[in-house]
Structure formats: structure tokens, C-alpha cells
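EI: anyone free to look at a 212-residue chain?
SC: sure, send it
EI:
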Amino acid sequence: MPVCDNKAVLLCGLVCIVSADYPIEDYKAVAKSRDFTGSVVVVTGSSSGIGEGIVKLFSILGANVVVTGTTATKVQRVAKEVQELSPLKLKPLEVVGDLTKTSDINILIDSTVKTFGKIDVLVNNAGIYKLANITSPDLLLVWDQIFAVNLRDVVELIHRSVPHLEKTNGTIIDISSVSAIAPVKMFGPALPAAKAGINMLTEILALELGPK
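SC: here you go
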């Protein structure tokens, strides 16, 4: 199972520039050379920001998409816009939940498979940022919160998704950060450490899952 196939390579390159307000015309220009019609794409944290941009791009490229987030009104707004952008006006699946909860991860994966019958692409985008330096009284609380959302739920999502992705020779895309490879004092220790974990996790899984 490829961690990033030929179609997804372009998307990996675009991750740095897509956002909720990225020009739709540029998305549509990409659609002329990439076709994801028939594919099922799950994008976590897609009710705003980079995730919203990614899920809109996949919709323009013809995919059936899953819009996820913690706030129902935001998920509903993005889902409506996503359907309008879809060439076939495909209705996205809306899933509201907290990915730090195993029960909500199970709902996300199970409802996707129940609705669309498969998963072709999993984009692990959901993340949070809170600042706490090494001397902050709440350092360990912030550390646990950031690792729960930015790393642990990625591991659990992949763990639950792999049986479905193996059936479709699917793709996993993990969203990292420049802070994972270049120390930036303003981010504090927790976020860079979690994102560095994402980078190594992705490399290890490329070795483990790539040959399948």
C-alpha cells in the first residue's frame, strides 16, 4: 500500500498552500490534470483551515469526501460548499466528533465504509496548538493535549483504516509542520515534538505498509 501514490504526490506538494480561502480557480486548474472520480477521501479537521482547503480540492477533483470536525455548524458549512464544488454535486459525508475518543474514531471509519463502501485516501490533518514553555505550570497538561490530537489520534486512525486501505491500495497523507524539522522558539516544545513524531511515524509506516 503506497504511502503516497502518483496522484497524491501533487496533493502533498499543495498541502503547504491550500487553505480555506485559497483561490478556487487554482483548484479547478489542478482538476484538469488529476482525476479522483470514484475515490473516497477522509480528511480530518476539514471544517476549517488547511483541512477545509484539502477537502475542497479533493471534491473538485471528483472524489467522494468526508468532512470532519468538532463543531457541527462548521462541518455543515464546509459540506455545503464542498457539494457545490463537486463536478457531479456529490454529497459529502458529515462526521462531527472528538478524535481523541476511540468511539468517535470508530464512528468516523465505520460510517465512511457504510456510506461509500471503502476508503481510498486518509488525510491526517486535524491538530491543535497551545503554547507552554518548559517552565510553564501547565506544561504537562498542554503536552498531553497536543500529543493526543496531533499524534495519538493519527496512530489510532491509521490503525483502524489500514484494513480498508489495503483493499483499495489506498494512500495515507500525514500533515506535519516546519517546526518538526527546524526549531522555532515561539512554538514551545510540545508541538514540534509531536510533529517530529508524525514525520518518523510516516517514514516507519512507509517501510511497513509500502510493500503491501
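EI: Confidence is low (pLDDT under 50) at residues 2-18.
SC: 👍
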